[in-house]
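ARCHIVE CARD
Drawer: 12
Card no.: 0347
Subject: one protein chain, sequence and derived structure
Cross-reference: see card 0346
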Amino acid sequence: MSYETAPVTRLVATHCCMCGKPLCDAKSLELGIGPICRKTVLKDNLVVSFDAQSVIMKALELGIDDARLTDRLLGEDQAEAARKAANWLLYYASANIEDVGTVCKVAHLLGLLGLKAVAKKLIGDRIPYLETEAKVVRASVSYSEVFNGYARKIGGSFDRATKTWVFPVENRSLVVQTLHMAYEAKLVGVDAEVFSADLTAEFQQDWQVAMIALSQPSKKASIRVVKAGDLLKVSSPFNQEFIAAAKDLGGRWGAAEKTWNIPSKNGELLKNVLRNCYKSELIQYV
């Protein structure tokens, strides 16, 4: 029986939450992260501006209800509170290293503390990871022939310097859908946050329609939905059925931009309306 497999050590964090190597000293066991990863990952990443109550509420929402985390977050000095909370979260992730869902929840909370680089490193290759920049989105993924094949169809190119796939920001929704389909993953890391999406038959149908449309180079998205504040601005071909439905959703015609402006609270209803009215047309969400 080895140190790592002894029954008693299963009750504590025995592997580094970053690199997965066994932890062999007391301090590393206490923190859940080894000395090398502490130096390379945690260096210069802490910020001192975060809302402790928001982090606590999000932890409860994610099912991480532990007084030890709450006590650390409510310290008087924010820098010290962030350090102690981050250390406890890393230990928690290490103790649950085989549970991808738990690790992703920890990454979300680390992001709220300002440790986005740590959150991204923690997720690593466990799940696809997406970052949004000004004009592009970057996808950090493990190798997949399926994803590579579809990535180029949605405007992707591989950046060898950063080892990421780069896409036009307007194709973000298609990138997310492609990540889910190619990796059959219900979890995707996005800007140090995590959301889930079930691979329902409806979801798969939407993705397949998009792929068919994109396989035709001459065809561009004929319907565009842009979120602007509390409104969703819809650019679409004339359709009497859609006009009637848009009015029912509280929409108003914007003559200047030639868009139907619909309250964003009706976003899910709008998605169903567009699907029913325009059938196989490619819909682009920005």
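Annotation on reverse: The chain has three domains: 7-123, 129-214, 223-285. The longest strand covers residues 223-228.
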